[in-house]
Amino acid sequence: MSDIVILSGSPAIPSRTDISLKHIQSLVENAGFTTAYFSITDFSADDLFQGKYNSEDISKLSERIQAARGVIIGSPVYKASYTGVLKALIDLLPEGAFKGKPVLPIMIGGSNRHLLAIDYALKPLISILKGEPLQGIYFVDKEIDKQNPENPINDLHLIDRVQSQVQEFVEAIQLRN
């Protein structure tokens, strides 16, 4: 099983959310962790729309999350919150799916006006699932270079923030095990 489950709530392909999460995935893997990456696009619309808790894909995701040591969850900002399709997926997970796990929230928005979406939308969702949310990272769309997915962040201040949050995430995992 993977040490860390990464969950993308972006319905767009490709997306800045996925580019950011894949970059963070590489940093976590460089720190010695194994990862499993899931996108909401990996799940059938029928399962999500009809709330199929017993779907094989949903059950597999749930098992992977419960076996993981930590979770990274990312979403673009839609109407000052995470995506509705991410919520549809989260609703199908068991109530304590993130229990006792450090969770690194990531959000990408069009401007800094939605900076608090992590605190007012994503962190409460993580808490409901019994996860332990870390500070998290909020990106503005223009800070992510879609043309350079291998090195999508050019701003040195943002690079430092990302590395700092990844280090905090790694330390939180190591403290629990």
TrEMBL record:
Annotated InterPro entries: Flavoprotein-like_sf, FMN_Rdtase-like_dom, NAD(P)H-dep_FMN_reductase, NADPH-dep_FMN_reduc_SsuE
One of the protein's GO biological processes: alkanesulfonate catabolic process
GO molecular function: FMN reductase (NADPH) activity
Ribosomal protein listed as a keyword: no
A Pfam match: FMN_red
Gene3D superfamilies linked: 3.40.50.360
Highest taxon in the source lineage: Bacteria
Keyword annotations from UniProtKB, A to Z: Flavoprotein, FMN, Oxidoreductase
EC number: 1.5.1.38
GTP-binding found in the keyword field: no
NADPH-dependent FMN reductase-like domain residues: 4-140
NCBIfam families recorded: FMN_reduc_SsuE
Listed name of the protein: NADPH-dependent FMN reductase
Organism of origin: Peribacillus castrilensis
Name of encoding gene: ssuE
